[in-house]
Q: What sequence folds into this?
């Protein structure tokens, strides 16, 4: 096993252990509470991204990669005819299932996204707060896999974090913007190393363009980056 394989296994272990407390980050609770003013800015920017996703309208057969606890699955489910939700953490999927209880058009699957290959094609592929956890040398293979998952005319939509200290827990310290790993701590004090890569919109658009993607990548200002697009001319990456 390589050092990168070990890092990715540690990343999976972290998110498995964090399943029960993950939502505290998104809801700005506990260690993630940054005060009334910062929290208000956070939730305003969440609403911005949610509105853009609503305008995007992720209809048809939808694939969600690294679906997590269902914070965005619940919004996708409003539009999708079918929704396939993948995550490497069984514990996280259980939280997601409880949140979406009664939704009969969702199929869940435990999957290592670096080894997973699609069995069908989808109209939309969506991933939130996942791209930043993809090692730089797996960026191209990951987007090849995404392209191979799309039906003709298929689209992607993604959300991720901008580099800002107030996005993470009070006891987390962000590494330099060009670093690719970060130490993460659970509520019980356990620490894990994870991949964390931050992107700027123009840089990300350029990298995707070289891989055959037409994308528009924007920010909400302080906390979030989001983008959407399609693979040019319906081409499939090998």
A:
């Amino acid at each position: 096993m390589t050092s990168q394989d070990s890092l990715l296994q540690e990343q999976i272990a972290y998110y498995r252990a964090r399943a029960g407390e993950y939502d505290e980050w998104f809801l700005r609770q506990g260690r993630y509470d940054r005060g009334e003013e910062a929290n208000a800015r956070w939730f305003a920017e969440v609403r911005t991204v949610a509105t853009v996703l609503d305008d995007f309208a992720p209809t048809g057969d939808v694939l969600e990669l690294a679906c997590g606890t269902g914070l965005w699955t619940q919004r996708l489910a409003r539009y999708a005819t079918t929704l396939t939700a993948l995550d490497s953490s069984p514990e996280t999927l259980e939280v997601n299932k409880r949140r979406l209880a009664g939704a009969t058009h969702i199929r869940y699957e435990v999957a290592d996204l670096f080894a997973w290959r699609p069995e069908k094609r989808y109209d939309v592929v969506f991933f939130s707060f996942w791209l930043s956890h993809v090692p730089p040398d797996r960026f191209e293979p990951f987007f090849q896999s995404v392209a191979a998952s799309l039906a003709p005319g298929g689209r992607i939509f993604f959300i991720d974090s901008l580099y800002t200290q107030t996005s993470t827990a009070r006891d987390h310290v962000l590494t330099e913007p060009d670093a690719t790993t970060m130490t993460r701590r659970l509520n019980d004090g356990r620490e894990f190393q994870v991949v964390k890569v931050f992107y700027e919109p123009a840089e990300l658009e350029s990298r995707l363009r070289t891989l055959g993607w037409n994308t528009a990548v924007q920010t909400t200002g302080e906390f979030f980056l989001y983008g959407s697009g399609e693979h040019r001319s319906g081409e499939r990456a090998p």
Q: What stands out?
A: The helical segments are 3-17, 22-27, 36-56, 73-76, 90-99, 139-148, 201-210. The chain has a mean pLDDT of 95. The chain has one domain: 3-228. The longest strand covers residues 150-161.
